[in-house]
Amino acid sequence: MPAIPGGTAWANFTVPAPGVYQYICEVAGHFANGMYGFLYVGVPVPTPPPAPSTAIVEGWVLTGSAVLLGIGVVLTASAALFGRFPTRPNSPGGHS
């Protein structure tokens, strides 16, 4: 049903049978940007999907990451402390 930009148009129509009918906007780019809808005639309207989670990261992921970070810090500190100071070789005369 054509309408002038910003205007309103009215029309009457008869739906032939129960079902789900899609209506769209035929202005270029509008359909691709979500300007469409559905008309439910004689059938139940489906329940909307649940809202997406607002939690960015689950708690168990944060806990696991903290444990792995702690292990990495301990290993790095151990390598830095024990890996840099090699044991002094024994001198041939038995003196240190």
Structure characteristics:
two-stranded antiparallel ribbon, alpha+beta, 96 residues
Describe the protein in words.
The N and C termini lie far apart (100 Å). The protein has a two-stranded antiparallel ribbon with strand order 1-2. The protein is of the alpha+beta class and 96 residues long. It has one helix spanning 59-83, and strands at 19-24, 36-41.
- Residue share in helix: 25-40%
Radius of gyration: 35 Å
**SSE order, one letter for each helix or strand:** EEH
Low-confidence stretches: none
- Estimate what percentage of residues fall within beta strands: 5-15%
Sequence of strands across the biggest β-sheet: 1-2
Count the strands? 2
Shape: rod-shaped
Mean pLDDT: 84
Discrete helix count: 1
Structural class: alpha+beta
Task: Note the main sheet.
Answer: 2 strands, antiparallel
Distance between the termini: 100 Å
What is the strand and helix layout of this fold?
Elements: E1 19-24, E2 36-41, H1 59-83
Antiparallel strand pairs: 1-2
Summarize the model shown:
This protein has 96 residues and is of the alpha+beta class. The protein contains one helix and two strands.
